[in-house]
Amino acid sequence: MEVRIDFHTHIIPESFPDFTEKYGGERWPVLNRTCACGASILVGGKNFRDVTDQVWSPEKRIQDMDREGVDIQVLSPIPVTFSYWANPEAATEMAKIQNDFIAETVAKHPDRFVGLGTVPMQDSVTAVREMERCINELGLHGIEIGTNVNGKNLDDPSFLLFFEMAEKWEVPIFIHPWETLGRDRMPNHNFMYTVGMPSETALAAASLIWSGIMEKYPRLKICFAHGGGSFPYLIPRLDQGWNVWPHLRLTTHPPSHYAKQFYFDSLNYDPLNIKYMMERFGYEKIFMGSDYPFLLREINPGKVIDETLELTAEQKRGMLGENAARFLNLELGKRGAVLANSATSGE
User: Fold this and answer.
1) Signal peptide location in the record (predicted)?
2) Is residue 278's pLDDT more than 60?
């Protein structure tokens, strides 16, 4: 039976606290209600994004899921709430509020939702501690992190402990762009979303490969948002760089070898791109993701997969749900209900 899992959705608590009052500073996101069914996320007093009640109401989400044919949503925080810039103690408090809310939402609707947590990546020891709590105490199925931490690429040595423990505990990692490179050149046209984010994602993926992290931790499970951004199309150029600059090599094999270890959501809008990704990575490494409930989301979720011609039934089932279930260590029931968490404990 075909089970549709939307791997890429975002959620925030309706009662999101105002940390500017408690800790000071202008970079904390604040949820400012504008009406019964909407709000603005403010940062530094400026409107960062308008949102609807879809972003906090499980009931509204389930209505949309039923209308759009989605069995399960994977819930993850909104990247603006990562707060990697903050004091680790304050950032941990911010993370715990969201992780607890996501776990509570999943507990109320275990047949419709699966949760990913967030951790304070600016301090790896604290991040590992919260990751363990997410998996072993809250029953979440993975961790969402940003593409950089205060301008440090993900190959920075300070993150090795986090990746080491994620591999050891078999914790799936969802990498989402935020604080994109070149923001000062993208004030117009919303290019931060359409050009900046794909480029930022490519830099994160290339950093993990070229540095040797993916060679060092070959069982690390990583999925990139937005179809990997521009990364899938830069792999031949990365390989060429590896070939012509042997003095820069830090890995045994060229980048394309390690790129096959990655997973990607399907949010690239075009069947031509899906076909290319299938050829380069295999259909097993792709799963449906819509970016619900934001404006750039795919409606209906899985549309690009449904419109990709000449897929076998196995390929379609895989990309619409089975691949995501396998990535997240889920066991699925007859209609998609989550029956068990088979993730390795953090012992």
Assistant:
1) none
2) yes
